[in-house]
Design goal:
By secondary structure, the chain is α+β, with helices and mostly antiparallel strands. It contains five helices and six strands. Strand 4 and strand 5 form a beta hairpin.
């Protein structure tokens, strides 16, 4: 695949012959682009480059920047026997924020370690944050059963683990999931 490289900030365009303009080259590598320009075989200003791409009906793919992985963490702020307040955070790219509570089952907040309304809201909120609303609404009760209801005092799970689990679950269920058997969890339960 070829990429677009700036070969000079101020040079003569090989198309319109205007000078002192940034000049670009399409090549397999930056080294090859620089070499082609130095040999006088390539180098177009932005206007000429766009014209050439339109004339050739070129398809341009702009790669999306990779998202930093997320790490979801939860911990109890007191002894487990009393069901103390909990803290659930999302770490991404060195920044930590609280997980937004998508209230549906439990107006009192998140919980885990049993199959109730607090764990259902936690599963729903994690998947909504990680996978988006549509996938979250389809999968959160299974995620609750496979993960959230089993977590202890502290836990963590990555966005990659969630994505892997969700992809496998969707593949096993397809869109007719109410009529199929529930899949087994795909990653090991991790309690920290």
């Amino acid at each position: 695949m070829k990429s677009l490289f700036t070969v000079s900030e101020a040079a003569k365009c090989g198309g319109c012959l205007r000078s002192d303009r940034p000049v670009y080259c399409v090549a397999e590598s930056e080294t090859k682009a620089t070499r082609l320009h130095a040999e006088g075989k390539s180098g177009l200003c932005a206007d000429c480059l766009v014209e050439m791409l339109i004339d050739r009906q070129a398809q341009i793919r702009i790669p999306s920047a990779p998202q930093a992985a997320k790490i979801y963490r939860g911990r109890r702020l007191g002894p487990a026997e009393t069901l103390p307040p909990v803290e659930v955070t999302v770490d991404q790219g060195g920044k930590t924020r609280p997980l937004q509570h998508r209230v549906y089952h439990s107006p009192t907040g998140f919980e885990w370690g049993y199959p109730g309304s607090g764990p259902a809201d936690l599963a729903r909120s994690i998947l909504w944050d990680c996978l988006g609303k549509g996938r979250a609404l389809r999968l959160y009760m299974f995620f609750k059963d496979d993960f959230v209801a089993r977590w202890g005092q502290q836990w963590q799970i990555t966005s990659q683990e969630i994505e892997d689990w969700a992809s496998q679950t969707e593949a096993e269920f397809g869109f007719g999931w109410p009529n199929k058997t529930k899949p087994k969890p795909t990653s090991a339960l991790r309690e920290i």
